[in-house]
Amino acid sequence: MVIDRKGLALVMALALAGCSEPAAEGSSPDETGPLQRVINVEVQDLAAVRFEERVQLSGTVQANRDVTVSAEESGVIREILTREGSAVAAGQGLLRIDDSILQSQVREAEARAAFAQETWGRRQRLFEEDGVGSELTYLEARYQAEQAAAVLATLNERLARAVVRSPIDGILETRQVEVGTMVSPGTPVARVVQIDPVKVTGGVPERYAADVRIGAEARVRFDVLPRNEYSGRISYVGATVNPRNRTFVAELVLSNPGLVIKPEMVANIQILRREVADALVIPQEAVIRVEEGYVAFVVIDDGMGGEAAELRTVTLGPAQANRVVIEEGLVAGDRVIVLGQNLVANGDRVRVVRTRDGSQGAEAS
Questions:
Q1: Per CATH, the architecture of 32-50+277-364 is what?
Q2: What class, spelled out in words, does domain 54-64+194-276 have in CATH?
Q3: CA-to-CA distance for 257 and 251, rounded, in angstroms?
Q4: Residue 327: which H helix or E strand, with range?
Q5: Residue ranges matching CATH 2.40.30.170 in the chain
Q6: d(Cα 327, Cα 179) in Å, to the nearest integer?
Q7: Least confident of 32-36, 90-94, 140-144
Q8: What is the pLDDT of residues 262-320, one digit of tens each?
Q9: What's CA 146's distance to the chain center, in Å?
Q10: Strand locations in 22-180, DSSP E?
Q11: What is the C-alpha to C-alpha distance for residues 296 and 310, in angstroms, rounded to an integer?
C-alpha cells in the first residue's frame, strides 16, 4: 500500500499521541500545553531541629586505680587473709608475714621505754624540785626516754606492716605469693584494681585540637554490652601530640554499676564538637554535587494545580551520621526531595508519594 506524505505525517502524529500521558480530565490539548512526564518522589518537610556534631574515635577502658601492692617487711608469708576476686576496702588486710621476731622486739622496746620514762620522771623531780643532780644528768635521762619511745614507735609500725593491707577500695585482682613464700621489702605480693568508676581513653586526631576540651560531653558505646550507651564528660586532655599517629589523648570517667565494664574493653567514643540549636538538616543523599558546588531539589506548586521540582543552590554546614546542616539555600517549610532527586531536573512535574517529618526524624505516609 502506498502512503503519501500527508498520510505518513498523520500516522506518526497518532503514534506519538499514544506514547504521551493522557491529558487531565476536562482539559483540551490547548489548555494543558505539551504533555510532560510526572516523576514520583519522596520529600522531607524541612523544620528547625537540634543538631549535634560529634568526634568519633575508638578507645580502651582502664581501671580508675590499678595498684601493685608490695611487702614492706621481710619474712615468710604465714596467712592469706583475703581471697582473689574479693572486694576490699582501703586498709583491709590481704596477707600476714611472720611477725614473731618483731613481737619479741616490741616487748623488749616496751620494757626499755618504760624504764627510761621512769628514770626521766625521777631525775626531773629531783633536779627541778630539790635541786639534786647536774643538768647534764637531767638532760641525759630526758633524751634516753625520748629515744626509747621512738624505738618503740618504730617497732610497732614495723609490726603493723607485717600485715600487707590494701591501699585503696577495690577488688583483689591477683595474689602473687602463697603461704610459705619468703618476701623482702619491695616484693610484689598482690594487685588491687578499682573499676567503679572506670577511665576510658582514646586518641583524638590533631585536627580537633581546638574542639575537644575538658568538660565536653561524651557518649561511649560497647559492642559487647547489652546497655549500649554511657554518658560522661572529658576529664583530661593531653598536652602533646603523638608524632607516630598524630593524635592526642582524651580521657573521661564513667560510673560502672555492676562492674560490667572491664579494663581493656574496646570503646566507641563520641565527643560533642559542636551543637546547633535551630538547624535545617537533611539527609546527605538529598544533596547533589555539581561543578559550582551543591544543589538540592524542593517541591513547589507549578501554578496549574500540580507540583514541580525546583533547583536550589545550597551551602553545607557540619555533617553527622548521614545528615548534613544546610546553612544557605533552604528555609524552614521547604519540601526537600530526598528520594528521586537524581531523576528530576529543574521544572519537572513530580508527584509526592511519601513525606518524612523532618522535625522528628520520623516518616509519615
A1: Beta Barrel (2.40)
A2: mainly beta
A3: 19
A4: strand 323-328
A5: 54-64+194-276
A6: 71
A7: 32-36
A8: 999 999 999 998 888 889 999 999 999 999 899 999 999 988 888 999 999 999 988 88
A9: 56
A10: 38-45, 48-70, 75-80, 87-88, 93-97, 163-165, 170-175
A11: 8
